[in-house]
Specification:
With 423 residues, the protein is mainly alpha-helical. The chain has a domain of 249 residues. 62% of the residues lie in helices and 0% in strands. It is built from 19 helices and no strands. Helix 3 crosses helix 5 and helix 8 packs across helix 15.
Length: 423
């Protein structure tokens, strides 16, 4: 019942964070890939779109979430895409709660962690309620799977399946090998058979993923430089400050806005050092829950580090690290206040959630229809009626694809009029 409640509340929170900022979102807003991927399926079929690399890698989850959207008429996509994304966010937040309960954490911590994944201010900048960003919560789920022992034991193939799907969705899931291999090599794994099966599931998914990455025509350039690492360090404290009310703001090119804090390399260095000390402290504890929190911190920040230093540190790359940080802190608070003081974690989590309500509404860029979907669709329909041979070009919010977009395969915003006129 608790898990179902988190699913319901997580779904509602995800959806209402959009509606608070744009009450008409269900009739006029289709976000980026949430519209692009169903468009591909309508024109080419699910499997042809699924196997096509996007941004140079395999993207299982977002492509699959596009499938139910593609069944519906394009005129209904603002409603359908938002509902599908809300259900995905609610489901994944409830899985976080379920896993933490199975890891023998208190109901307070498990529920707080599941709801934090959809309530955090940084999630509301761009990630909230988009199928294209649901992979972030999937990564958190996968990180929990490799960080904690579960009692009673989970079905043997459940965690390998989760890791397999995660690996097919995002290359940075390679980080999940670290706690698995450390546990296996040093004999920390409580269930050796389970750990080996987990490694097998993750390995199989990553073999497919990196085959796609290495053979994709539109591969993403990967370059790690001292400058890229310094940029990540400078942005890191801003990501941590989003935990405070009023500090979550989005700037140019998707980076976190400076607000009252300007990027500083040394501040970033000490922030990372503080997180390393916290991780080491948690790993040194005897409690398997605290050790799990330590591994969760490490995997979360490495998952965010990889795309940030190989590309540039936009706000989305800090979402997973901040979620795992908050969960780890909740677990630590729950370990400090037990017995007759167990009410304190409840009060702390409630107060934190109340403070975050200041940033409950999703950001302006995330909720402003640009363009309005009905107007854009009407224009394309009229264009196709007048000249059926002219390829219409869809535009999704936020005025996307951008000018530098390069779609060479089935996935494209430029389609045949047949798709529009037969919709």
């Amino acid at each position: 019942m608790l898990v179902i409640s988190v699913f319901v509340f997580g779904t509602a929170i995800s959806l209402f964070r959009i509606l608070v900022s744009n009450r008409d979102a269900l009739s006029n807003l289709v976000w980026a890939e949430d519209g692009l991927f169903p468009l591909c399926i309508q024109g080419n079929g699910y499997f042809q779109c699924l196997i096509e690399p996007y941004e140079g890698y395999f993207l299982f989850l977002s492509r699959t979430l596009a499938l139910p959207v593609a069944v519906f008429p394009q005129s209904s996509w603002p409603l359908v895409t938002n509902i599908v994304a809300a259900v995905a966010f609610g489901f994944l937040s409830s899985v976080i709660t379920w896993l933490l309960l199975r890891a023998q954490l208190s109901k307070t911590i498990a529920i707080g962690a599941g709801l934090a994944a959809v309530l955090l201010p940084i999630v509301g900048l761009e990630a909230i309620n988009t199928s294209g960003s649901a992979y972030m919560l999937l990564l958190v789920v996968a990180a929990i799977c490799v960080s904690f022992p579960f009692t009673p034991r989970l079905p043997l193939f459940l965690v390998p399946l989760i890791l397999f799907v995660t690996a097919l969705t995002i290359p940075s899931s390679v980080v999940l090998f670290i706690p698995l291999l450390v546990a296996l090599v040093f004999g920390w794994a409580q269930e050796k058979k389970q750990t080996i099966t987990n490694i097998a599931g993750l390995s199989l998914g990553l073999v497919i993923q990196f085959f796609v990455v290495l053979t994709a025509e539109n591969s993403r350039s990967v370059e790690i430089t001292p400058a890229s690492i310094q940029d990540w360090l400078a942005q890191f404290p801003k990501a941590m400050l989003t935990l405070l009310p009023g500090f979550a703001d989005i700037g140019e090119r998707g980076q976190l806005a400076d607000s009252v804090y300007s990027p500083n390399l040394w501040t970033g260095f000490f922030a990372v050092l503080l997180l390393c000390i916290l991780s080491a402290y948690l790993l040194s504890r005897k409690s398997p829950q605290l050790k799990g929190a330590g591994w969760l911190l490490i995997t979360g920040y490495l998952i965010g580090l990889i795309p940030a230093v190989t590309n540039y540190p936009i706000n989305r790359y800090f979402v997973v690290p901040i979620i795992t940080l908050v969960i780890a802190l909740f677990i630590w608070i729950g370990s400090v206040f037990t017995g007759k003081y167990s009410i304190i974690p409840v009060i702390v989590i409630i107060l934190i959630f109340l403070a975050w309500l200041q940033d409950f509404g999703a950001s302006e860029i995330r909720t402003t229809p640009s363009p309005s979907w009905p107007d854009m669709l009407s224009t394309l329909q009229e264009q196709c009626k007048q000249d059926p041979d002219s390829p219409p070009a869809f535009t999704f919010s936020p005025n996307w694809p951008f000018a530098d977009a390069n779609f060479t395969g089935p996935t494209s915003h430029i389609v045949n009029c047949r798709i529009i006129l037969t919709d």
